[in-house]
Amino acid sequence: MDDIKILDTVERYIRGEMRPDERLHFENLRKTNAEIDQLVVEHTLFLQQLNHFGERKELSSTLNELHTDLTEQGKIDSMKLKGKAKVVYLWKRYKRVAAIAASIAGITTITVTMLVNYLSPKAESAKVRELVNQVNNLDARTKQLDTKIDKVDKKSTKPVINTPARYNGTGFLIDGKGYLVTNSHVVKNSKNVYIQNNKGEQFRVKVVQLDLAKDVAILKIEDADFKPISYIPYGIRKAKTDIAEPIYTLGFPRNDEIVYGEGYLSAPTGFNGDTLSCQIAVAANPGNSGGPVFNHNGEVIGILSTKEVQAEGAVFAIQSKYIYQAIEELKKDTSYQKIKINSSSSVRGMDRVQQVNKIQDYVFMVKGD
Prior knowledge:
Layout: H1 3-14, H2 20-32, H3 34-72, H4 83-119, H5 125-156, E1 167-175, E2 179-182, H6 184-187, E3 193-196, E4 202-211, E5 216-221, E6 235-236, E7 246-254, E8 257-267, E9 277-281, E10 292-295, E11 299-307, E12 315-319, H7 321-330, H8 352-359, E13 363-368
Parallel strand pairs: 6-11
Antiparallel strand pairs: 1-2, 1-13, 2-5, 3-4, 3-13, 4-5, 7-8, 7-10, 8-9, 9-12, 10-11, 11-12
Helix pairs in contact: 1-3, 2-3, 3-4, 3-5, 4-5
């Protein structure tokens, strides 16, 4: 029996295509011929590896088609992805073509190798083992590539939240476990609220406290991608601030870019003597609402709230002591007993540029729909 017929017989045996008498005869042959038995074992492994490789490619192709269909239906806006996310999308978009080409090339190589090995006069089972090893190495490299793609995918292709926002504002962390403060008027009419930092990272949040009278809202980040922060560099001041003390703000009056503003405390009270707020002299726009107002020590002295249209340049901020009151009210719910507000500032004594560099990552754009 020549090599081609042997291979054909082995494959028929593995696939269960023999008649009972043929199968009995072949099994007796395996018992008496070690080389035939070894060939059956190696060829079985070889076919399993081919099937496994094909199944992985089929699954990958199916996932790719699903992603492409969702994109074409407008449910995923992949063209707005940036950086690594866009690279991964383009890989997924055209991976099927590449996979088909790679599969054809791989199968052709394997087929040619098999024919050369088995048509060669010196064909031995060692060559089969070498071929199986090559297939195993190819499958191992494929798995490694898939793992790398999965890691990049999980890290970089989190769906971008593209829901048009009706309300934009600013918020800032007051507890590293994911609690933020902003104005209540920024989020009060929103069904869904999310935040975005200066790096473009987005997180979904939940409104857990809403005080319309004081215009203060407490938000809680509820997103698996958010990692708790061990400390916040700025403190929340309890005492009043003196008139003429230098102050500065950080906020998002324009989309996707944090903006710095500076000025001073104009009056210890707000419009018409309102004791809830204080008046500050600083440039502000609607997107600044809910943003932090810092003194020269890097302490939050207020939440930028409103701009009085009746008085040119008059901007007001809710006094920071009302942040503490909002938290105490929230703590009446036992689910929020562990909230802790930092009252001391670790950026005290730094120059303004250093303070802003330390603080800006804790200030977020707040969007609601």
